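Journal club side-thread
Mid-discussion, someone asked how the predicted structure for our own chain would compare to the paper's figures. Pasting it here so we can look after the session.
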Amino acid sequence: MQSASDVEKITKYLPDVSFPMTFSWVRFYEKENLVQAFKAPVLEIYQARISLTSVVTAFEVALDGFINHLVKKGCIKEPKNQKSVKHCIEWTYNQLFPCYIGEAKAVERLPETFGIIDNARRLRNLIIHNQGLFDEGYEKDIIKFRDIKADMHPDYSIYKANPQKPTPTVFGTAYFLRFSMAHLEALHLLHNELQKKYFGYDLGYDYRVENKAIEWNKALWGTANVTFQPIEKSNIS
């Protein structure tokens, strides 16, 4: 989208000199500086970061939902430290061992997949809590559980060589997709395994068998039928 965009046309639609920060005050800026700051590849890097935080959050909500449903149905007792994301990931890993349902290669790579999932969790924490800069906690907070293999961002070695110099977490679309695929694959395996273990349903779900196209409206709005009125034009000046 950025490659297909006309920077001059974009600039015309930006707020003139300020935009609101609170209900009481605004911040001033120059359009040219904003456009320069987000020149390629910065926008892609920014988008990858935002997407990572969304995927990790959605994964955590899904795990919490699975656990709560199993507790409500009397299948399991409420796990200790359920609100700890690390413990939820460990609980999930335990549920998948042994795992006899789902693609064999996906089951085989579970140690690597959960290492990637844990890396995403730690990177999300840096992005949210540390301005996206590496710190010692990134390595110290690695999940050491069963045979999960630690996954590290390659630029962490730059931080390790010189901890006094701020080192940002920089990654683009390809690196983000590792995280997206890892989370989705783990959720599919977990869903199938829980269905089999607690409800006696042993037919794993597979999008390839279903030959299902992505339904974008459902992805965005669920089962709601949404109609939109024209969005009010901003009066920022």
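Post-session note: The chain has two domains: 1-39, 41-209.
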